[in-house]
Amino acid sequence: MSERRIVIDPVTRIEGHARITLHLNGNGQVENARFHVTQFRAFEKLCEGRPFSEMPALMARICGICPVSHLIASAKACDQILGTRIPPVAEQLRRLLNLAQLVQSHALSFFHLSAPDFLLGMDSDPARRNLFGLIEKHPETARDGIRLRKFGQQLIERLAGKRIHPAWVVPGGVSETLAPTAREATLAELPEMRAIVQRTLAWFKGAIEQFREEAAAFANFPTLFLGLVGPDGELEHYDGRIRVVDAAGRIVADDLVPERYRDYLGEAVEPDSFLKSPYYKPEGYPDGMYRVGPLARLNIADRCGAHAADQEWAEFRQLARGAVLSSFYYHYARLIEILYALERIEQILADRQILNRHVRAHAAANHPEGIGVAEAPRGTLIHHYRVDEAGVIQWANLIIATGHNNLAMNRGILQAARRFVDGNRLSEGALNRVEAVIRAFDPCLSCSTHAVGRMALRIELRGPDGQLLDEVSREA
Amino acid sequence: MSVLILGFGNPLAGDDALGWRAAEMLASSLERPGVRVMPCRQLTPELAADVAEASLAIFLDASVELPAGKIGCRRVTPQPAATPFTHHFTPAALLSLAEQIYGRRPEAVLFSVGARSFAGSQLSREVEQALPALLEEVEELVARVMQAGQPACEPARSAPGEDLFSVMH
Questions:
Q1: CATH superfamily of A85-220+326-362
Q2: For residue A437, is pLDDT > 50?
Q3: How far is A244 from A260, CA to CA, in rounded Å?
Q4: ipTM computed for the complex
Q5: Residues of chain A contacting B46 with CB distance shorter than 8 Å
Q6: Domain coordinates in residue numbering, chain A
Q7: A452: nearest CB among B40, B48, B85
Q8: CATH superfamily of B3-167
Q9: What share of chain B is helix, strand, coil (3-state, %, to 5)?
Q10: CA B11, CA B33: separation in Å to the nearest integer?
Q11: pTM of the prediction?
């Protein structure tokens, strides 16, 4: 028998547009799998010719889910072009914004996009396996998710004026101070938010056993892990140095200067995807596969640096002797990071210096190049710009968090497809599990598409002559 | 008595900015206790909490059903989302969500203005001209319900009736 092919198009409950192709051998077994990102945004090219001062606001348009992450990485690159050190309170305000973004984005991923799989079941009716099905069966969990996400968005709004595409982060700092009323209102809401994440953590830890099969087959293999850590090896999302850890949990490289990312990160391009495939240069391509994001951050850090999150982190690390390898545990890591973010928000707001009015340094373009690196909810985000003497952008390079995970996502769907897909008889549950591997990474394919449920989906099994052998489909 | 005004649309998509623009303007003209105005890009599940707390919700949006520049209004009743996408999240779905999650929902009305174009960052001439009349309608409705102390969904010059789309101007 000849080879056959299964196409999952589009992949559902992710941010953006993608499809998956599964290649079967003559016995109906999965031989290869590819994750294709089919949308093209071209921000690296379209910003050429724009004044660098416009970059944070322009780059925030890359995405409606994580505009804050692009704002921050872009502003950090622009700070370098200015050649200024931003005021300390401006840095703290940016940190607050980044943490608020982490809360709302992780809450969206966990409660809105993935909880339907956990609570309704991987094999449950796909027509109800979404946020609305969750509301029907588990209104308390749905309410918690909505409340937590609202908190994150509200803090973004209190800081930056609006929830989506705020332009408050500017080269040299931020444009406005924090209002005392916003500080007080946020501090007052924190106990409720902590209670939500702590009860969700308690439930999820108890439910993990039910997903043993998924944990074993959802991108569960050795890779490197990469991300920023603070000066004492603690969890870090705004600044710090790059650390690389291997599958055994050993530090492979530490204290790497983020601005010199090109020394240790390569960017490969595959013909069937618009998503670049970065790799760790010393290991070459594709062996230099690494993962970023919540799972990676908890694997590379020595501790969180916040009391309750540190306790959860210690328990999380007990899942494995070395690094925690299964990408299913991205979900678990997200909850711990939400807890961490809430604690850090409290720490930052507790200091009344946060109300200081000196929030911006002013300068003209003093350097021809700037590189901004920060941790977005999905992983390490790099913005790199070159400008001419007038400060006009001549060249830009972006490495988006999701891109770092591209190689691992591809290998992950292959592993899950081999475990769950029988090419001779397709099932909706198998299809959902292959998609769920991608959802575990929570990829943001850059964009405005914000799916809280399912998209139309079709999976076809065709014979060597193109004959349709089997089909699973569902409508939006 | 509390009134929530949700004007939604994309400020960078021509007449789609109508709801957003109108809400921005009403935020200053209707600044008073009991009235909350929220301009937003799109309706999202998180807004269900705000909707559930209101006695009357007023939605403002551009419409492809009405002739360009025409103002219409209709009462909104809860209807579960036909599609689980936030990009297609409707006022009716938001009401339904508020009812499901929080066990309560407000009376609600949707004001719409017929759009000419969804390109560019400007409102079309027809929609720009309709804006003052729309603001007047909303202000009048808010004044009336605040005075009465209870939600009354029928705007001044619309025919009453559920889901009846009435062209007002």
A1: Cytochrome-c3 Hydrogenase, chain B (1.10.645.10)
A2: yes
A3: 14
A4: 0.72
A5: 146, 149-150, 153
A6: 4-39+413-474, 85-220+326-362
A7: B85
A8: HybD-like (3.40.50.1450)
A9: 35, 20, 40
A10: 27
A11: 0.85
